[in-house]
Every structure is written in C-alpha cells, then in structure tokens.
Amino acid sequence: MRKISFEKEFKEKITIYCSLIRLNKPVGLLLLIWPCVFAVFMATHFDHNYLLVFKFIIGAFLMRSAGCIINDLVDLNIDKKVTRTKGRALAAGLISRKEAMIVLGVLLAMSLLLLLTLKFKTIIVGLFFLIPVVLYPYMKRITFLPQVFLGFTFNLGVILAFIETHGYVGLNGFIIYFALSLWTISYDTIYGFLDKNDDMKIGVKSTAILLDQQFYTYMEFLNVLISLLLVLAGLQIQANFVYFLMVIASYLIFIWQKSRLDINDIKSCELIFKSNIIVGFFLLIGAMNA
Question: Topology of domain 2-288, per CATH?
C-alpha cells in the first residue's frame, strides 16, 4: 500500500511540475522555438548543423520553463484574481514558493551549462539577456506595453543565433529580430484579450486594454510590416522561391486571422493565438529551403 501511495504522490508531483513549467501547454514553447531555429537556418543557410539547432531548442525549453516560474512567482497575487491563471500550480497552492524556486534554480543551472557550450561572445551576451527575462513580469504594473517588452525579449534567441554563427548580429539579424518581435507583439496582444476584463478590474495594464477595438487596425499594419521585413531578410541572403512562397503563405494566414478574430470572444482569441503555430511552421520551412 505504501509503495502504491508513493507512486501516486510521485505522479501527482510530476504533473504539478509539468503544469508549473507549462509543459501541458506547448503552444508557447513552440512559439519560442520557431524564432530561434528560424534564425539559425537563416544565418547558416541551413548547413545541417543539427547540434546547434538542438542546443537552441533545448535552450528555448529551459528558458521558457524558467521564465514561466519567474512570472508565476512575481504574479502570484495577481494570478489568484484572474480566471485563466488562478488554477496555476503556485496560485492554486499546489506547490510552495520555496519548491518553485528550487525548480527554477535547477532550470537556470541547466541553462547556464548549455550556454557554456557556446562561443565566449554568445555566453556573455546570453548572461545579460537574463535581465529582461526577470524584468518582464513587472512591466504590466508600470506600462500598457508589456507585450512590446515581451516581443523584444521573447526573440532574443535570434540575436544569440547570429552571434554564435557569425560573431555579430549584422543588418539581416536585426531585420529578422525586429520582424519576429513584431509578430510576438501581435499574437501576445491577442492572447492578452483573454484576460482583459480581469486585468481591468485589478489594475493590470496590457496592450489589449490600451488598443481595444483599434487593435484590428494595428494588427493589419503589423502583419504587412512583418511580411515586408521577412521578404527583405530573404533578399539579403538571396533566398530561393520556396522561402518567399512560405512568407506569402504566412501572410495569408495573417489575413485569415484578422478576418476571424473577435477580441470579445475568448474562444476566437484562443483559436487565432494558437494558429500562429502554423505561421511559424511555414516560416521554418521557408528558412530550411532559403
């Protein structure tokens, strides 16, 4: 009986840990992985450096997991008041702050070990990039643009990919970084509409609250700008037609998203947010064939 009880408790604890790092919600992880791998492919013309791709995928997983815990620790009191987040492991009291911090420490240690396998310049820059990851959860308290901050933080892997492969970022690296950051700002604002009503009640700021109905206009502008920047990035490396075809395909998804989005409907926002996985997939296929 004791063995069965131990196994049950162990399984429950693993389930809680998976929830803590959002392993049960892989959409966010994929949206972090796509830019990193896309940047590696664009920077190297996909020279089949699978080890580097693997490192960036694992790095994205570790840092996304760590970022989720940092966010939950900072937002513990806020999460308890928001419908979507009150069931999270920390907010629901399924795990203690001390235990969450131990898991965070393990994740950060593993991230550091992985970072140390990269070039010296990449290591130094990567260490500095931990700062915006820690600062992000506080942005919703001081500005209506936390999604903008997230966008430029979420895609720092693009910068690391170019530094690791070229030793510098370069014009094309910044073009890709800016394009993918705008993409993140767009879909994370859509995600922000899920919590808009709760956020307004408790005084939390977001781009969704700031723009409200005007977001449709901004969304269209961002979609065009993102696509133009990606085309420019392709021209910079003289990409073949497959790459540009995939950029066009991603833009068609953007058009579909805008036509189907209802910012007042949670299910609509969830659907459009998740559909960005398809955008990322198209872009990845394009980069692999660039």
Answer: Tetracycline Repressor; domain 2 (1.10.357)
